Structure to design on (380 residues):
């Protein structure tokens, strides 16, 4: 270790001595005592500028062509066509400016390298040129900004009434999704109710939460608007579905949303790509911690009939967590059992709710019929 430190110290001392020598040479040039100004390194650096210009552009074009499919995945949503069009218009305009400025940036050091006897042109300002390169970029950027704003407003407009509503929540380090049941309404939630089982913080005082379900994959139907409600449980996350051109931050305490319509099922995309293992994916594009890399969820796009069939096969969250029936208000417990599809045996204590006990008493049959009709009206 000592030898390594000693070696580094010697190298640093040599570098310092070399720089002192260089400073001395430059001072001699300024004073006029040194006649040799254009050294070999001047020509080498000028040639390297030209080399980097040609090599950099060659690498740029090769990478853009060779990996085009990796950074431009096939489009699978309706609004994606508008965003792609806007992206390529912006890329074309900024690309032209990029090429012009960088050609000048690298070519000028080569073209105007120091030569004995040549004096630089003193060109302090040009008001017309300054006005030109201020107004033109301002006008172009204004058009791009307002075009993008118009596209964004159309995407973020109020979702249609027939949109499929679902919720996705990011947490360290995974995604969780929640669907409404037969009532098509997501139940209320409260972060203070979150626990290892109730990860969404579902409020069981709300009747709409009784038939909500939470699958392991996000399924959506093809050709129908999707209203994706987004929130985060701990830190900032970001929902990214590249093929759908969907990207929206998941912010703790500030719910966001995104509306989109899928145009290709998973099966159709597999056929188009010739890849039977292909899956749409949801990724997190915010560095949310050490396990950020693992935030990946499968998105399945079904035909509408397959999607409806899949929904009917999903058990409700309350059915999978019957112990939470105890947290349902007593007057709603029987309704919760029915909406959640729970089948209780006769000896289970949770079934002994006031409503069920009244069924076993000598109550008026007409009154019992009225209760049944009320429950049926609520369910419908």
């Amino acid at each position: 270790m000592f030898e390594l430190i000693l070696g580094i110290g010697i190298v640093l001392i040599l570098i310092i001595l070399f720089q002192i020598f260089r400073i001395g040479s430059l001072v001699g040039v300024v004073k006029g005592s040194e006649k040799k100004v254009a050294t070999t390194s001047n020509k080498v650096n000028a040639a390297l500028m030209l080399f980097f210009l040609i090599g950099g552009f060659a690498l740029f074009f090769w990478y853009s062509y060779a990996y085009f499919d990796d950074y431009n995945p096939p489009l699978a949503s309706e609004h994606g066509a508008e965003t792609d069009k806007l992206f390529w218009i912006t890329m074309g305009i900024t690309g032209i400016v990029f090429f012009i400025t960088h050609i000048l940036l690298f070519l000028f050091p080569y073209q105007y390298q120091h030569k004995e006897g040549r004096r630089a042109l003193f060109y302090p300002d040009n008001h017309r040129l300054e006005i030109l390169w201020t107004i033109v970029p301002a006008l172009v950027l204004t058009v791009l900004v307002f075009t993008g704003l118009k596209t964004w407003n159309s995407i973020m407009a109020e979702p249609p009434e027939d949109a499929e509503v679902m919720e996705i929540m990011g947490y360290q380090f995974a995604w969780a999704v929640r669907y409404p049941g037969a009532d098509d309404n997501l139940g209320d939630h409260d972060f203070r109710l979150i626990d290892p089982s109730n990860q969404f913080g579902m409020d069981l005082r709300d009747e709409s939460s009784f038939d909500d379900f939470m699958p392991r994959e996000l399924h959506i139907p093809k050709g129908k608007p999707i209203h994706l409600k987004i929130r985060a449980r701990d830190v900032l996350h970001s929902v990214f579905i590249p093929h759908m051109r969907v990207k929206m931050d998941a912010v703790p305490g500030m719910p966001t949303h995104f509306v989109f319509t899928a145009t290709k099922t998973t099966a159709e995309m597999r056929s188009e790509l010739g890849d039977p293992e292909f899956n749409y994916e949801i990724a997190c594009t915010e560095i949310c911690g050490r396990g950020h890399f693992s935030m990946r969820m499968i998105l399945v796009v079904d035909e509408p009939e397959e999607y409806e069939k899949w929904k009917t096969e999903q058990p409700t969250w309350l059915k999978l967590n019957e112990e939470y029936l105890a947290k349902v208000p007593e007057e709603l417990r029987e309704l919760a059992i029915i909406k959640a599809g729970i089948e209780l045996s006769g000896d289970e204590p949770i079934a002994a709710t006031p409503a069920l006990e009244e069924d076993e008493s000598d109550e008026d049959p007409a009154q019992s019929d009225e209760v049944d009709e009320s429950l049926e009206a609520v369910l419908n």
Observations:
- The longest strand covers residues 164-171.
